[in-house]
Structures are given as structure tokens and as C-alpha cells.
Amino acid sequence: MNLRMPTLEDIHSAFEQGEEAVVALFADVGKQVEALAGELQQQAAALKELEARIGKNSRNSGKPPSSDGYGKPPVKRTDSLRESGTKPNGGQPGHEGRHLKPTDTPDVTETHAVEHCCHCGVSLNGVAASGYEERQVFDIPAMRIEVTAHRAEITLCPACGAENRGEFPVEVSAPVQYGNGVKTWAAYFTHQHFIPVERTAQIFEDLVRHRVSEAVVLNAGAELSERVRPITDVIKEHLRRADVVNLDESGLRVCGKLHWLHVACDERLTAYEIHARRGQEAIDAANILPAFTGIAVHDHWKPYFGYEQCQHALCNAHHLRELQYIEKQYGQPWATEMAALLREIKKAVDSAKSDANHLPAEQISAFEQRYAAIVTAGYAANPRPPPDPQAPKKKGRPKQTPALNLLDRLRDFKPQVLAFMYDFRVPFDNNQAERDVRMMKVKQKVSGSFRTVEGAERFARIRSYVSTARKNTVNIFSAIRDAFAGKPFTPSIET
Questions:
Q1: Which residue of 29, 70, 325, 408 is surrounded by the most CB atoms within 10 Å?
Q2: 210 is in which domain, residue-wise?
Q3: Claim to verify: residue 289 and residue 350 sit in the same structural domain
Q4: How far apart are CA 252 and CA 271, in angstroms?
Q5: Surface-to-core class of residue 51, CB atoms within 10 Å of its CB (0-12 exposed, 13-18 middle, 19+ buried)
Q6: What three-state secondary structure class fits 248?
Q7: What's this model's pTM, rounded to 2 decimal places?
Q8: What is the CATH number of the domain that holds 440?
Q9: Is 394 helix (H, G, I), strand (E, B) or coil?
Q10: Helix (H) or strand (E) holding 156
Q11: What are the residues facing 249 on neighbouring strands?
């Protein structure tokens, strides 16, 4: 809108016409100024909203790190949600250090004899040694493919002349085949370290001087997936009976289309599910949350709240990121105070965990009062705009600022936000699920996309087994080898 100010001729003409003309002239100018002020106010609000949107990243909101783009700045220590501690750098007291120690049972011993006396030159051949100085070298011997020929005897019965044949082991079913060792290597490289199939074949050629085909690598994964299928069913059953389960989901590409990876886990178990949908249909297909009656920890994604037979707890790492965003973008002190309060409650919980399973009632009451006061201060700093009677009616919730959205969540879901304070079994955040999702995202970064849904499901099943074994301090290579041998690792139920 362009503001048209009256010229001297306009003013002179108005004065000649009389008082009413002068009043009308300046009234028109006032209307133009008022309209221009309203337009500037709208543009300022739009600019502020745009700045707020641009200011969001993975460190101050729930946006994934992949959305930061190539121009993301380096993470400053001052921007981290983790508070600086008083511990010195390096290993902490009680930390189990790892360094090379000599062994009492070396595999090979080489003796270096003394041939002549270093003083007079006399030969010392045949003279018994009076002692030894020992040094040990830890090394990897040269590796090669070992071929075992299985021969079944063919014997003619001297009584009746019938031909009798010996029986091969059950696992030896073809004239020429690879053994479980080769399959274990192939599955270990591709599913634990996410090495592509062709490069896995190259590793075989470089290390053991024998190149396997890509089909061998793929078939090893397919066989391992079937071997561990019963174990993944056991994992899901354990999770359905668990006290606390962490939940998360993330997108990934399958057949060039967006699919969703769902994870349910705790500190001992991991279960992945690949599905074309993100919502209730996929959660039901995973078949964990529908029968779960414990405490579900998640990031406030709405479909999770549809399962009312269980309790819910919210991830406070998400809240800290959003509070940091509001503090920096809007400069509101209540956000700083709420973040400090959540951290203070966490410290109190961590200090009390060794002696109790919940905080004292008076301490809980004091924290709740401070929590409510900060939320009230937040609403005072973010008054809701009055409804515009001329604005067209829209379905759903009216659009709000990020600060009001977070305040509504902190107010309406206070028991879920502070669940870690009421029950020490509940973690402060949902980092367990986010860590378990992260490894699958690494796989996607390496390969870009799964070519088939079946391949994605196989990979998720194997990763459920591998992740669970790792959490139970089981050697991953051994767990995969045992699965091929028909003796897969099975997690037990803690009592």
C-alpha cells in the first residue's frame, strides 16, 4: 500500500472549501496511516514467523539432523544440551582400561639362543640357559579358506552283495558348498558394519584370497534372517511384558518410496518393524504396543496416545531442545527457567536412585509448584491473540506460536513430562530408542535405499537380533555364528 500525503494545493483547496473539507482530507490521511500500520504489523508477524522457522534445526527442535543441510554450522559446545561437568578429561576412576597384557599361554614360542660370549667370544652352543627375557608379539596369522572333503564310504555287503553308503552330516547337502564360517563373515560385514555386498565380496578376496559371489553374500543374509526369526518373536514377547518400553519411528526408502522404521526397545531388547505407513496400522502390525500395559516412553507423537491400556511418558530431551529454541529465538526467560528446572529434577532423581525408587513427597510438591509457576509465567509472556470475527473459519486447532504450543503441552501433559520424577524406572529422555534408530539410519546413508520390501524386513529382523545380543554383552560375531549353527542367542526374562 502506498501512502498518499496531501500536497500544498490539496490543503489550500480544502481550506478554501471550509472546515468540513479540511476534516475530511486529514481523516482520509489517518485511514491511510492506520491501514499502512496494519499492513506493516502483518508483515512483521510474517517475518518473525519466517525467522523462527529458519532458526529451527536438529539441535533446538524435533527436526532430524538430515534436514540441517550442507550449510549447518559446527556444533558449539555452548549450544549442547549436555551440561559441562567437573570430571577431568580421559578415563574416569573405576573405568576398565584396555591395554596389551602378556599372556601365560602363548600359541607359539620362539627361542633366540646365544651363540658366543659377548666378552671373550667362546662358543656357548650346548650350554644350558640360566634364564630367559621374554617379549610377546600379538599378531593375526595369515588367513585362507580351508577346504574340508567329506567322503561317505561305499561298502558292499559280503553276505548279500548289497551296496551300503555312509551318511553325510546334515549341513553337508551339496557336492560343493560354503560352510557356516563364510556365511558368518558375510552376514557380519553386511548387517553389523553395513558394508555393501560388492565390497564384502572384495574383502573376502583381499583377506583370504578367495572371492565369493554377491549371491553368496545375499543368501547368507536371507538364511540368517530365517534362523533368527523365532528369536525376534521372543524379543517382542519380552517387550510386551516389560515395565518400560521406548518407542520411536523414522523414515527410510524402500523400492524408491518412503517407508517407516518403527522401533520398540529397552536397555536389553530391540525390535524393529518396517512398514509403508507411519500411524496406527504400522504400530498394530509391530504387535507390541497393542498388548503392552507398562509405561511407553516416546516423543509425544499423537498415535501413541491412542493406546490407553498403558501409561505414557514424554522425552524431555525434546523439551530441552524446544526450550532452547524459544529462549534464543524469542528471548523469553521462562524457557530458561523451565530447562533449568527439568535438569535440576533430573539431578535430584539421579542422586536418589541408589537409595529409593521415588523422590520424597515434599520435594515432589515443591518441584510441581515451581513447574506450575513457570508455565503461568510462560502464558503471561505469550498472550493468546483475540479471535478475528472476520477471519474465515477453519477446521482443527487454530494456528499458534511455537511457545504457546509447547506451553500447552507442558500444561496438559505434566504427569507425562514429569513421569521420570514420579517413577525412577522411567528414563528422563527417549535416547534409548533414538540410539537404536540411528544405526538403521547409518545403513540408509551407506546404501541409500532398500531395493525390496523383503530385503528391508530381513535386515530389520537381523538387526533386532544383533542389537539385542550387543545389549546383553554377547559377542556379535559369535551370536551370528551360533545362529547359523542352529543355536542362536536367546535373551532371558529378568526376574
A1: 325
A2: 180-190+197-220
A3: no
A4: 16
A5: exposed
A6: strand
A7: 0.78
A8: 3.30.420
A9: coil
A10: strand 154-156
A11: 262
